[in-house]
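Chapter review. Work through the record for UPF0173 metal-dependent hydrolase ACFQL7_11850 before attempting the end-of-chapter questions.
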Amino acid sequence: MELTWHGHSTWYVEVGETTLLIDPFFDNPHTSTAPGKINTPDYVLLTHGHADHIAHVGEFTDATIVGTPELTGFVADEHGASDTIGMNLGGTIECGDAYVTMHRADHTNGAMTNYEHDVGIPSGYIISTAEPSRASEPDTTTFYHSGDTSLMSEMRDVIGPYLQPDAAALPVGDHFTMGPWQAAIAVEWLGVDYALPMHYDTFPPIEIDMEEFKREVESTGSNADVVVLDGDETFTLD
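Structure tokens for UPF0173 metal-dependent hydrolase ACFQL7_11850:
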């Protein structure tokens, strides 16, 4: 599985022959890539409707748009997306070579700057190479994109022990989401091998010292490696 971070919460994920783009927002200081330069993904996964997560979804309407029914309906109405999959919390869908499970994120929601459109509950996604099961395949690779969220006990009680992600992309910028110390607890609860920070340094309120996050993870006793990517850099998750 190839994970490319394009800054903020925008990830391009390759699973076998299938490509997925999460939360397309390219007006951020960690990327030099324009939306038109991205290889058109097979699927676009949207965690919620805030502008810094769906700003460039209109550039990818040739892809299948995945999100809550409220959000995919909004994208269809506003951007003319004709191929959408509306799903909801707890559901798993097959997206080519990937299995995508939607899980809750603790955050607010709304589309357009005046928040006039209710676009459903915020979410995160667990992307895996095999369908989630209690009898999981030993060679399954699983990536968790938490969306914009605070620390929540489901990370400890459900996502970690049952969905078993190998790597997690977690917001660390504070103010609008978890900050370094809560994100570090999330890393411990999830039991991941790799922690990939996101949603930081985009705007002044979420500028942080990344060393603080590394120290917080270390202080939990977690064995996870903190992988800080440069914008447009790719991490291979085996």
